[in-house]
Amino acid sequence: MTLDRHALGFGAGQRALYASDPWASRGRLFPEAESPTRSDFQRDRDRIVHTTAFRRLKHKTQVFIAAEGDHYRTRLTHTIEVAQIARALARALKLDEDLAEGVALVHDFGHTPFGHTGEDALHEVLEPFGGFDHNAQSLRIVTKLERRYADFDGLNLTWESLEGLVKHNGPLISPSGEGTRGLVPRPILDYCAIHDLEIGSFASLEAQVAAIADDIAYNTHDIDDGLRSGYLTFEMLEEIPFLARLMAEVRARYPGLEPSRFTHEIMRRQITAMVEDVIGYAQRAIRDVQPESADDVRRAGRPLATFSEEMAVTDRAIKAMLFAHIYRHPEVMRVRANAASILTDLYHAYMDDPLLMQGHYWVDRIAGMPESARARHVGDYLAGMTDNYAISTHRRLFDHTPELR
C-alpha cells in the first residue's frame, strides 16, 4: 500500500475536518462543567486510566495464564500496546489522539478472568438470563459498576467515548434492524434507551483506528508469546508469505542473529507493515468518501480505517495459524477447561449463597432479588475478578482447585 507521506499528521497539531472535535462533543449523560486545562476526551482518557477496572487488567489473562510465566502478555500489557498503535494511527491521520487512545484503553474492561475462556464460561451459565458479552460488560463498568464519583455511577464518559467502546467493531444493527453479530446484548439496548449511541451506524475514525490497532497488536504479540511458549516455531511462520518475507529480510540483514533478537526484528517489521497498510488504505478511503465531519464518517456505510484486501488475507492467515497452533493446542485447551470449571463452580456457589461475595456493594440485598437480577450481580462480581483472585477464592471455598499450568 503506497502512503501519501505529505498527508500524514506527524507533529501537525491540527485535526482534520473528519476528526472528532473535543470542543464540540455531544456531551455527557450527566452535564459537567468544562475543564480549563483539558479537553473532554483527555478527561475521558484520564478517568479510564484511574479506574479499578484498568488496574485489574494487569492480572487478567490475554492468552497464557499468568502462572505459566511472567513474560507473557496480560490483558493490561495488551491494552497498552493497542493504545500505542491507536495513537500512532490517529496522529498519522490527523485525528483526535486522546479519543483514539481512550477507546483503546477501555476496549477490554469487560473481559473476565482467564481471557475468552472465562467469557465463554460466564456466557454459558448466564445464557438463561441474557448471556454474557465482554463489550456489553465494558459498557456496564463505565456507566454503572465503577463507583467513584459523588454525582453519578460509572465514569460519565462523553458520547463519543461510549460510542467508540460499543461500536469500534462496526454497527450492531443492520438498516433492517437485525443484529449484525446476533442479538444485541440487553445492557447495550438498555443504555441506548436513555442515551442513544446510534448503534446502527459506524463509529468515528478514532474508534475505527482503535479497533484495527487491537488486531495489529494481538496478531503480533500472540506470535511473540507463541514462539516463547514453544507452541509456534519459525518454520510455522514460514508458511505465511508475509511473515516469510519479513524473516528473509531479517536474515539477510543480520545473519546468525540470536532467536530472541530475531523474533523482535520480525515483530517490529510486522507492526510497521500493518500500520502503514492501514494508513494507506484510510488515506485512499478518505479521498474516495471525502468526509467533512465525523458524522460523515459515521454515515459512510463502510469502515474507512482497516486493512487493505491484501493485508486482510494475511490477517486471516495469521489468525488461522494462531487458532490452530495456540488457541486450540491440546495443552491450552486443558488449561481452558480447568479455568472454566473454576468460574462455573464459583457462579453456582454465589447463586446458592450470595453472602459469599465478599465486598460486593449490594451483597446484603442480593439474596432477596429475582433469580435473573441475582445472576447478573453474580456475573458482574465474577467478571471483575482477576485470575489470581478467582483461583485463591476457589481454593478457599472448595476442597480441590484444578491446576492451571
Any overview of this molecule?
It is a single chain. The chain contains 18 helices and no strands. The protein has 405 residues and is mainly α. The chain has 3 domains: 25-30 and 38-169, Hypothetical protein af1432, CATH 1.10.3210; 206-328, no CATH class; 331-397, no CATH class. The two termini are 43 Å apart. This is Deoxyguanosinetriphosphate triphosphohydrolase-like protein.
Task: Supply database-style keywords.
405 residues; mainly alpha; single chain; Hypothetical protein af1432; globular; PHydrolase_assoc_dom
Average pLDDT taken over every residue: 92
Structural class: mainly alpha
In total, the number of domains comes to: 3
CATH overall fold name of the largest domain? Hypothetical protein af1432
CATH level-1 class of the largest domain: Mainly Alpha
Largest sheet: none
* Helix-strand sequence: HHHHHHHHHHHHHHHHHH
Radius of gyration: 22 Å
Say how many strands there are. Answer: 0
Number of H- or I-type helical stretches: 18
The portion of residues assigned to helices is 55-70%
Q: How large is the share of residues in beta strands?
A: under 5%
Q: Architecture of the largest domain, CATH level 2?
A: Orthogonal Bundle
Low-confidence stretches: none
Give the termini distance in whole angstroms. Answer: 43 Å
Shape: globular
**Could you name the CATH homologous superfamily of the largest domain?**
Hypothetical protein af1432
Protein name: Deoxyguanosinetriphosphate triphosphohydrolase-like protein
Family: Belongs to the dGTPase family. Type 2 subfamily.
Pfam families: HD, HD_assoc
Domain HD: 75-219
